[in-house]
Specification:
Layout: E1 5-9, H1 25-29, H2 37-45, E2 51-55, H3 66-75, E3 79-84, H4 93-97, E4 102-108, H5 114-119, H6 125-137, E5 142-148, H7 154-166, E6 171-176, H8 182-191, H9 210-222, E7 229-233, E8 243-245, H10 246-249, E9 251-254, E10 260-261, E11 269-270, H11 278-281, H12 285-296, E12 309-311
Parallel strand pairs: 1-2, 1-9, 2-3, 3-4, 4-5, 5-6, 6-7
Antiparallel strand pairs: 8-12, 9-10, 10-11
Helix pairs in contact: 2-3
Length: about 300
């Protein structure tokens, strides 16, 4: 990934599941109409050749024209990866075999067996995912991510980790549930008044014990000493060192309105990638100024539990 532009792209906020911990309900209500194929191709045309696209969830594979977008990225020789809940996995097995520039697939699995399906409001999803994983492992690198919700029991998580190790998953990532309050929003805006911040909308509530419970779960799995590599995001929750944000320092983001933005919670956006060259936009004064303001005040109160944080 050295010398590449890492670009997180939200094609749409549409999703085919209703997960309890989803933080994006309000954004999804006001999501614009879907981007047309021509508009998507215009954006791809305006990206640098040395780009790497990370298609974010909500759900990438549910986007009607995603096969054509994959083909265009292949034609332009731009690498990309996807994060998916795999509800539509069966339809894409043959497609994935022919995508040379698809470098990684990330599946979100958050509970073991029936608890996973209850959390995601979809019966038999867990079984379908587990049965199809061996076929995917034969053609593409695969990572499993698990959002550690406050009500996820140690026993349930251990069962999931043991199963992933058994079926050959090489990397299991534990995700810290992002949370911030209205007070955090106001404190952040007091430092940077121009910030437009999206409220965090989720049914999952954390408490003062959440961090210690998260670390306890991590250590329980680590002590199993399995072949599956165990990681956490953000790694910065372990240490009190100086931290920064990947989306500020190392990455760029195209939001669902096809504009350059900072992240899913800071809604300030700039210009339009359907018309303008990417290199021109990232050098825009207002865009660079906002990034600098955030860097100088980092971490903002809304940023402290974000999985994009990393240790400097």
């Amino acid at each position: 990934m050295n010398n590449k532009y890492i670009i997180n792209w939200e094609l749409s906020l549409n999703c085919n599941l209703k997960c309890d911990f989803c933080s994006q309900w309000e954004r999804r209500k006001k999501s614009p109409s879907r981007i047309t194929l021509r508009e998507a191709f215009n954006i791809i045309e305006n990206l640098p050749q040395n780009s790497h696209i990370s298609f974010l969830w909500w759900e990438t594979l549910a986007y009607p024209m995603i096969p054509e977008i994959f083909k265009e990225l292949e034609r332009k020789n731009i690498t990309y990866e996807i994060t998916t809940n795999w509800l539509l996995l069966d339809k894409f097995i043959n497609t994935f075999q022919n995508l040379n520039n698809l470098t990684k697939i990330n599946i979100s699995i958050d509970w073991y067996w029936e608890y996973h399906d209850i959390s995601r409001w979809h019966q038999w999803l867990f079984k379908r995912i587990i049965n199809i994983i061996p076929y995917i492992l034969e053609i593409k690198p695969l990572t499993i991510s698990t959002v550690i919700t406050p009500n996820l029991s140690n026993n349930n998580l251990i069962k999931l980790h043991l199963l992933l190790n058994k079926i050959g998953i090489l990397q299991h990532k534990l995700i810290y549930l992002m949370h911030f309050s209205e007070q955090d929003i106001q404190k952040s805006k007091s430092k940077i008044p121009d910030l437009i911040i999206s409220p965090l909308n989720t049914e999952q509530k954390t408490n003062t014990k959440y961090k210690s419970e998260f670390l306890k779960k991590y250590r329980l799995l680590k002590d199993l000493n399995l072949d599956t590599d165990l990681q956490i995001e953000p790694q910065s929750i372990f240490l009190n060192e100086k931290i920064s944000c990947k989306q500020i320092d190392k990455q760029y983001r195209i939001n669902e309105k096809w504009r350059l933005s900072i992240c899913e919670f800071i809604e300030n956006d700039f210009w339009n990638l359907k018309r303008d060259k990417f290199e021109h936009l990232i050098n825009d004064y207002k865009y660079k100024r906002l990034k600098q303001d955030i860097t100088e005040n980092f971490p903002l109160d809304i940023c402290k539990t974000c999985c994009k944080n990393y240790n400097l």
